[in-house]
Amino acid sequence: MTYTLAGTVDETMASTSDMLIIAMIVTYAAALFLFAIEAAYGKRTNLRAGKLMPVTVGSGKDAGAAGSGDDDLDIDVNVRTTEGEAQASQSNLGRVALGVTTLGFVMGVAQIVTRGLAAGRWPWGNMFEFIVALCLVAVGGLLYASFRYQARFLGAFVLVPVLLLLGIGVKWLYVDPGPLIPALHSYWVPIHVTATIIAGGAFMVSGVAGVTYLVSHRAEARRALGQKVAGIAGRLPSPELLDRISHRFILFAFPLWTFGIIAGSIWADEAWGRFWGWDPKEVWSFISWVIYAAYLHARATGGWRGPKATWINVLGFLTILFNFFAVNYMFSGLHSYA
Amino acid sequence: MSTTTTTDDDTGSGAGPGDGTGAGDREGGQPRGLGPLGWLRWAWRVLTSMRTALILLFLLAVGAIPGSILPQNVVSVDEVNTYVRENPELAPWLDRFYLFDVFSSPWYAAIYLLLFVSLAGCVFPRAVVHARAVRARPVHTPRNLGRMPYAATFTTGADPETVLGQARKVLKGYRIERYGDSLSSETGYLREAGNVLFHLALLGLLLALAAGSFFGYRGNMLLVEGDGFANTLPSYDAIYPGHWTDTDALEPFTLHLDDFEASFIEDGNLRGQAESYVAELIYKESPEAEEARHTLEVNHPLTVDGVQVYLLGHGYAPEFEVRNADGEVVFDQAVPFLFRETATFTSDGVVKVPDTGGEELGFVGVFLPSAAETPEGDLVSDFPGAENPRVTLEGYRGDLGMLDPQSVYQLQTSGMEELGSSPVLGIGDSWDLPDGAGSITFTGYSEYISLQTNRDGARVPALAAASLAVLGLVTTLFVRPRRVWVRATRGADGRTRVELSGLGKTEAAGNNAEFHELTTELAGRLRNDESDDNPRNPRSSTPSDPPESTTTRE
Ligand code: HEM
Predict the structure, then answer these.
(1) Nearest Cα residue to atom 4 of ligand 1
(2) Best-predicted range by mean pLDDT (A327-331, B129-133, B284-288, B467-471)
(3) What is the separation of C-alpha A260 from the centre of its chain, rounded to a whole number of angstroms?
(4) pTM for this structure?
């Protein structure tokens, strides 16, 4: 029998990390405020066509670079789509908000790094650290969507759950940095946990985009009935666009989640002597997986596309949250690092 | 654009959707007067429809929920027993619906077997259709290309053959077929292949798991430092063999626990948290084989003769020496105690001494690895490590009832007379029993480990199937099947009219952007061709960038 001291924790790093998380929360709150103003008071303007935006050049002349001379290379394009041009509420404040969010994201990275240095290990080993990392991925997803799909309009919607989760994390789940229990001493843990955290963050962005879609879909339905839609709901981008963004993130997250489950079962095989044992955590990750598979199926099933499929997506994210929170506290199981 | 499983679209004259691809939404119509065969067909179509798959997937998810809320026998038999004891009214009803064995229950099996039958009925015909489609030529160019979701036209001075020649270069990665004045091309065949691979791999996974559970076994036992274990049925404390496992022919390996060390964090607010467990094992593959050593740790199992040996837990085995009334040593060994909680390792156990020469003796004991007094004067353990080991005992005399099967962790005191409680014993302390019945000495302690052995032939096949599933999944989710047609016809003015149309079979909005890039690239190449042909053209020296479309850039 030997004993070691828990003195491996670097106290300066630990306090830096704790300070950073507070600063990050304040920063995100500021960004949320700015995003909300953009969503509510921005001007509804066209988004550029892109990977997820329809090309609605109509039948207009699309001049090539060589417009001069006797060689007329004008291309006449006809795109059949029922979709109008994608629009979103935009203002310069949104750009500022994006900058502020990026700042918060950088703080988040620094927070995780310093916490890892403080504890002398990879920094996602308990509930608090999971939540923080999950939120970091979700914000990363938001930034990616903003730059790649011009989906800045999701900002306000993504930051709400992020701030909620961070608040819960800091208030109720906080633990001091420290070493891990022996069951977590395996290189499969970082692989497995990293995959599930990244997938979880992407599911979160997808779920948020899904909820936004549902709001936008209702707004459009009411508009079709001739009713006026007030507030942010009436200024959201088209439901088609939101649906595509939401789907995009699932395309990314679902295979990663699948991989995460496989990595987890390899680790379970090494640690507990069976690769699958229907432990509550395993049951719920299986349930989430099945629900997202159902979502993908629903999109390919007549009569299920649109809001119904999106509800499945939202349900899927709720099961992920349930797995993160409830399973750690309500059920006894091998995955008890709460 | 539709993503239902219709493998062809309204433009094509290629292979139509094979009969029984089954994944469309054709189950709607009720069969009227079809006879038994018709009904059967109808039932099969319903079963293999996407909607049924969707519903079964939901049932699969919902059915799993009770398996996480109620204790399960696969997870812990003890928890189920505790639950049954605490809920004597409800538990028999739950048990009637297999709610303590959800994942091996007939109703759960019905869900997943139906799902997999549905899957097979869906995926095999699809595989056949796809195999045919892969070998088929791209479909005929439709007459009216302007009706496609994306349609572009432009004119060029290049002749039609040049246009089609350049188009072949632009359509890199497409399978191309010439039809008269046009090219028909298609790409993204891998999406369907990936989908089939994914679904087949799931089927393979199910089969591997089934085979593993029928032929494998799982067993648990304790091993005290210095003791050995031989892999035979009676050596186990508990063993769970599969249906067709031959338990008389288990792998003949032996284990010996040389040493075990647990280390705990000693101070700070994580005091008492375990830091590592290390067990030094000596093992032999078979009685004739050479000895080998293995350091067993939580994430470092031993593989011997195809069986995995895992470290599950550990505990203390205090050692006792018992003397009878005549002062002869009648018992001298370590007795494994079970811990109540990992934070303190306060452990309970039972010492049974049947052979005393006189009346049988029994003791119920509590072991405190780090005994300390609370302010109220109670004796507790405040640390899991053995810093200050103490034992207290209650003695009994009479009939241990050893003829009946009984647990080594329980003392049947019904046929026994109480002898009272011992003082708190440190190492080396003795308790002289009342009435000169003898004495018991706490001579020290060993540690024991609890081990699990597991033979599951499914491990590797299941991993292979799961990996293939991921591969298929990624392929099917990211490959976009799409068709492009290019037609070049000479107009009355002598110029060539080029039509380029595209049809994506998935809903990806990126398709149109990509088709437009193809158009601009083709136009750009033709323009450069023209300028090369015509040296007087002043623009022949301009760089050959394709014309950019402001509307398709991201
Ligand atoms: C019961 C029979 C099943 C049928 C009829 C079926 C049918 C299909 C079809 C037609 C697609 C193609 C959708 C598309 O091209 O977008 C598909 C995709 C898929 N299926 Fe199944 N499937 C079945 C079972 C399962 C099962 C049991 C799972 C796993 C739990 C599963 C998971 C998936 C996934 C993840 C996709 C990808 C969706 C996509 O391509 O967007 N399927 N399935």
Answers:
(1) B119
(2) B467-471
(3) 16
(4) 0.82
Length of chain A: 338
Tokens 């001069």 belong to A68
Q: What ipTM goes with this model? A: 0.87
Cβ neighbours around A194 below 10 Å, total: 17
Homologous superfamily of the B144-188+483-541 domain (CATH): Kinase associated domain 1, KA1 (3.30.310.80)
Mutate which of B112, B119, B189 for ligand 1? The one with the most ligand atoms within 8 Å of its CB, which is B119
Which mutation among B468, B475, B476, B477 tests ligand 1's pocket best, with the greatest number of atoms within 8 A of CB?
A: B476
Residue ranges of the domains in chain B? 32-129, 144-188+483-541, 217-455
DSSP calls for A255-284: HHHHHHHHHHHHHHHHHHS-S----HHHHH
Q: Which three-class secondary structure state does DSSP give residue B458?
A: coil
Among chain A residues, the shortest Cα distance to B100 is held by: A278
Task: Give A200-237 pLDDT, tens digit per residue.
Answer: 999 999 999 999 999 999 998 998 888 888 778 888 88
Which residues of chain B make contact with A262, given a CB cutoff of 8 A? 463, 466-467, 470
Cβ of B297 and A182 within 8 Å?
yes
Residue B547 pLDDT greater than 50, yes or no: no
pLDDT of residue B32: 63
Q: Which of residues 136-195 of B touch A (CB under 8 A)?
A: 146-157
**Interchain contact A226–B (C-beta under 8 A):** no
Query: Distance (Å) from the C-alpha of residue A180 to the closest C-alpha of chain B?
Result: 7
The DSSP result for A104-155, as a single string, is HHHHHHHHHHHHHHHHTS-S--SHHHHHHHHHHHHHHHHHHHHHHH--GGGH
CB contact under 8 A, B149 and A81: yes
Q: Is A70 on the interface with B (CB under 8 A)?
A: no
pLDDT reading at B8 higher than 70: no
pLDDT at A265: 92
Please check the confidence at residue B214 and state whether its pLDDT lies above 60.
yes
